[in-house]
Amino acid sequence: MIERGEVLLPKGLVDALTVQFFGGALDVARFNVFAARRFQFRSGVSLDVSIIGKSHAIVLTRGERQLTELVACVPDEQLGAEAVARRVKFVAIAGKDSVRVADSIGRLRVSYTRMPLSPTLISRWVGRAIGAGAVSHRFPSPCGIAMTVVDVDETTSSYETIHTYPESDSAVVTKTELF
Q: pLDDT (tens digit, 9 = 90+) per residue, 81-137?
């Protein structure tokens, strides 16, 4: 279900968005967590999904091993030196591309696309936000629908996300697959 937040977001956040991976679990308490939920893949990997602002942090765990995916525009100062030292991948989101990460958790492929907002795109993701595998949050915005949705498919060990930025007429859609 889409929940309403209490923050108005400045223009230009989408321009600073990155995909980052960290060895171990990031302390999401450093961020403003609007929604959180745990999922379990059949492969034995669990996901701790947190919507943090118009971003997300997902901690993947297999046994004692952990890896964190962070899609956010968070400066290193907010992450802290210890987390920055554990960063294994950092990619700015500019258009359409994918990154691969190999870790003790497994192999991940993350595809991402930055695209213009459209009524069709919003409608499709608002529908997904109420699904059984979704974690979502809607933010107040005078410009349109600002939301983050993480839609988990436990049967395929994958998840998709959308981050909308109506102030920039943009959305970023990601898909992460665990192999």
A: 999 999 988 888 877 778 888 776 778 889 999 999 999 999 999 888 888 889 999
Q: Is residue 8 part of a domain?
A: no
Q: Is residue 3 part of a domain?
A: no
**Counted domains in the chain:** 1
C-alpha pair distances (Å), 143 with each of 9, 165, 173: 11, 9, 19
Q: Is the residue at 150 inside a domain? A: yes
The DSSP annotation for 5-69 comes to -S----TTGGGG-EEEEEES---GGGS-EEEEEEEE-TTS-EEEEEEETTEEEEEEEETTEEEEE
What value, to the nearest 5°, has the Cα angle with vertex 150 and ends 128 and 115?
80
Determine the structural domain holding residue 94 and report its residue range.
13-178
Distance (Å, whole) CA 56 – CA 71: 5
One-letter amino acid at 88 equals V
